[in-house]
Every structure is written in structure tokens, then in C-alpha cells.
Amino acid sequence: MKKTIALILTVVMVLISVPMVAVSAEAAGTPSVYSGTPDTSWYTADVKAAKEFTITTADQLAGVALLVNLGESTTVDGTPTYEKQSFYDWKLKLATDVVINDWTKEELAAYAADATAIPAGKTAPKTWIPIGFNDSESGGQYNGTFRGTFDGQAHYVKGMYYNDGTMHNMGLFGLADGAAIQYVEIKDAYFHGNKNVSGLVGCSQGSGVTVNGAYVDATLVSEGGYSSGVVGYLYAKNTSVKDCVFTGSLTSSAGQRVQGIMGFDKTKTSITIKNCANYANITAKQKVGGITGVVQAINDLVLDTCLNAGKILSGNDTEYGTISSYTWAAAGANVTGNAVYKDCVYVTGLCYRTHTSGDPTALGDQPFKNGNGANADGNIGWKFQRTKDDGTVETLASTSSDIANAAIVVNTLDELKGNTTSLTKAFAGWYFEEGQLPLPKGAAVAIGKIESNAILVRAVSSQASAAEDGKYNIRFIATIDKLDYEEFGFDISYTLPNQTEPTNVKQAVKVVYSEVYGVDAQFNLLTRKASAYSSNYLYTTTISDLPAEGTVVFTVKPYTKAANADAVYGVGYTVTYTNGAFVKATALD
Where in 292-367 does DSSP place strands (E)? Predict the structure, then answer.
């Protein structure tokens, strides 16, 4: 029983931490491999009446695409006809991991460049036709849009491949209208198209889309631009993207309006991008953004708690930015409505204009200008602001310069208050008074009966931080191999200095991670990966506001609980800290 879960001991950096969290859950079991032939045999009268279906094979997932793009084939007087299915008002659930091609995205990119580059033991990759696709302008037979609800249930789709620089609307979904897409991971995808290239949704149109909890790992190549990692192009009333991450790369050497999370908007609409992160390098001719891009006719835009940690490369001196094209955080050019942006951060490096040699490595620390990013007070520059619980707006950092790597004034950390410091160091030391900055690297997932919840997670370090206001925090991490429990978490008991009665904490955990990132006092990146402990997932809890002086001994027991069963405890530890420093950890019998 004790082999089910084990404990890893770590602590939280409080004063200087940029928390970047991987929340990518891969379900246990054997994935379903695509045969190359879509299966629509499940599309029966009973299923149609119920308007609900659980996808259990890769071929069935491809069958969804076939029904949307072409339709159900019937024969009338000897002539085949097709009845298309948009899945409007349907609920589709993915109950298995899916492998379209068991290739890495690097292997797929190499094959796209050279069709002889087939790894040993593999055959040529199968092409994925997006769910919602239109190739009729090129003489094809597909023309459809997805309008239903798709719940990936934390499963992944691996190895999608499409390589045609003349085609539009790439992704797991090509065209979506009024759709809701949630909790799906895109792994090792390669899409090469013209416009509206994405890993998840190529184009949001009509009534828009709602995306919640998607992790996109893809290599994207767009000949014509208007592309993004999660939602490529907006021509819709309303679109919302929350708890999403894009990692990999997006290149559009001749295109524009290219960005990490959500793309170019061309209609009067409302846009929300919340708790999202871009880790991908983005390269385009101009109008390049880390999170979003040019928004030309907008009612409302909200960028809330977003991170860009990818390198942004542009062929234009002014029309690119870290959080959005043109400007650092306002939503690009020609914003005509209300724009709210708070708690958004750009972490690593700077944005760059493409070097005249075409060699990105020749860029060095060349600064960039924010273009037309004037603040409301008329100054060219930017501000970090957040809305406090009482509704007031607090400026955390600001600069009046239009050079992004100029000195900035930080108003949050006591040791930096009123002083200037370099941009890079200020970001590396960023935190809020609450001690947490939620920067996700993936989507929180539902575990059994525990509802999904994208929690705020701090950086993980191998040592305790210096105390702040005489207190510090400790984070514990445990491993877990599968997700079929009703509940799991920690039982923790500890006695504070000058305290006789112990404090007992039983904390159920709602989120698992494949890896957790953090930084140490020298801003070196630290990583905790589940695979390093021969496990599938990590889960965590934090004990806060511990006194900086004295000794605290913790008894920490990770547990799991199946439905209608007692808790089962894994290997526990007694853990000792003195004056905020780790002393020892001893396994319990």
C-alpha cells in the first residue's frame, strides 16, 4: 500500500519567486492509436437522440471530424448524399488518450521539410483533418463548423500533422462557432498552413468559443499570419480563453498578427484571456504578441493574470510586444472599447527586431519600442496594475520610457521600493502582497468527484527563503500514479515554537501536475518533474506563515481515498526546520 504515493520535500521561495506551474495530466492506460480510417459506426439513432457521446477510440475522434466536415453518407436513388453534423447542443467527451502519430513535433517538422526523414521503425505520418474544416476553395469536399461542447477530460491528443501552406484553419478544431472546449492536452502537433493556424482552434467565428483548461505543445508554421497557439483568428461575437498554455513555436516569416494565446480580432466583440501563459517563441514579420494581437473593433478586452515567457521576434521596429502586439499590455492597435489588463508579466528576455543578418542569435540585448502604447496619462510606457479587494487600483510597477529594458520603479517589495532596478531582475523577483502570482503551465483537471480548480501555485525551491515579516512558508509535494481516486491529499501535524498543542491539517488536493518550476535566490531555474520520481503526477500543499525563529517538526502523510473506502496512506516523513532552514527528514515506519 505504501508504494502508492511517496513524499518529496520542497519549500517555497516567498521573497523572490516567479512561479511557473505545469498542470498537464496524462491519464493512465494505453492510448488509442489512429488507424487512418475515421469511424462513424457509433453515430446511431439513439446517440443522435441523446445528443451526447463518449469517444473511446482515435478512429471515433476522426469520425467526429468527418461528420462535421463532410457529413453522414446516405444514398437516395443511387446517389450518395451527405447530412452534415455541427454537433450543436451536443456534449462530446474524450475517454482515452489519442495518438494520431507516435512522432515528436521535431520529427514531424523534419519530415515536413524532407519526406525521406522517417525515423527508424516508423511509417509516414497520417494527416489529421481538423474538426471543422473548409477545403472547398481548393476543390476539396470538406466544409463544416463545430458548434458543440467538447470535454477532453484531461486526455491528450498526440502527433497531429498537417502540411499544406495553402490551407487555412488548422488545429484539433479548424472552425468553431458557439463551441465550448475544455480540459484537453495537445502533444507534439505539427501544423503548416496559410492563415488561422493553431494547435487547438484555428478560427473562432459567429458566436465565438469558450476554451478552458487547454495545454498546447505544438510546432506551428503560418505562411499568411493571423495565427496563435490556442485560438488563431477571431471573427466572432465573444471569445473566452482561460487556464491555457502554449508551448513550442509559432513562425510566420512573411505574415503578421501572430501571437501566443489568442489572435487577431476583426469584429465588435468581447474578449477575455485569463490565467494563461505563452512559453513558445513567436516569429513573424510584424504585429507580434506574446499573449494576444491586434484588436481592431472591440467592446471589451480583459487580459487577467497572463504570462509571456517566450521570445518574440519581429521584422518591424515597433509593431510587436510582450503581452500584445504594438504595446506591452493594452490589446494592440486601434482599441476602440474598454481594455482592462492586470497582473500580466513578461518574464524572460526581451522582444527583438529581426537582425538584418536574419540570425536571431545576433540580437543580443537590443531594446524594442512599444509603438503606440501610450498610457492614459499620456506618457509612453507601461504600468503593472492590479485591482484590490476593495475595488481600488494599485500600481505595482511603472516606467515612462518607451524602451522596455529601461530602469523601472517597483512599488511592492520593501527592499526595492523607491529604487530602480533592471527589468529582468524586477520580473524575476515579482510577487504580490498575498505572496502568490498564478502563472499556469497547463490546465487544472477534474479528479473524480473533486471539481476542477486552477489554483495559485508558488515557485518551488530546494531551500527555505529568508523570512518576510518574521514568517516563511513551506511547500510539500507528493507523487501519485493514477487519477481514479475520489480524494487524495495530505495529513500534516506540527507544533510551533512555544506551543504545546499540535496543529493538525488534513488537506484534500484538487490539482495534479507533471512538473513544477521555480527559481532560487540567484534566479536559477529549478524543476521538479514527476518522471524524475518514477511517477506520473505531482500534487502539492503549502503551510504558510511559519515563525522564522525556532524549530518546527512536521509529520507529513500523503493519502489516497477511493469511493466508499477508508484513506490509504503512503510513505510519510517527519521533517524538521530550524530558523527557516531545512534540518532533516526521516521516513516513518
Answer: 298-304, 307-308, 312-314, 338-342, 345-346, 351-353
DSSP secondary structure of 250-299 = EEEEEEEEEESSEEEE-SSEEEEEES-EE-SEEEEEEEEESSB--B-SEE
Question: Is the per-residue pLDDT at 347 higher than 70?
Answer: no
365-405 pLDDT, tens digit per residue, is 233 323 222 222 222 233 434 444 565 555 443 433 322 22
C-alpha distances (whole Å) from 240 to each of 141, 178, 331, 456 are 31, 11, 15, 20
Assigned C-alpha cell, 52: 451526447
- The pLDDT tens digits for 29-61 are 689 999 999 999 999 999 999 999 999 999 999
Q: Give the C-alpha distances (Å, rounded to integers) separating 60 from 52, 65, 152.
A: 14, 9, 14
CA of residue 194 relative to chain centroid, distance: 24
And the C-alpha cell for 428? 524575476
> Alpha-carbon distance 323 to 427, whole Å?
14
Half-sphere exposure of 56 (CA within 13 A, CB side): 4
Domains of the chain: 5-17+458-587 (2.60.40.10), 32-399 (2.160.20.110)
Q: Give residue-wise pLDDT tens across range 405-464.
A: 222 233 332 332 232 222 222 222 222 222 222 222 222 222 211 122 222 222 222 233
Choose among 318, 315, 322, 319: nearest CA to 341.
322
Q: Rounded to 5 degrees, what angle do the CA atoms 412, 421, 359 make?
A: 125
Is residue 321 a contact partner of residue 312, using CB atoms and an 8 Å limit? yes
pLDDT band at 202 (very low <50, low <70, confident <90, very high): very high
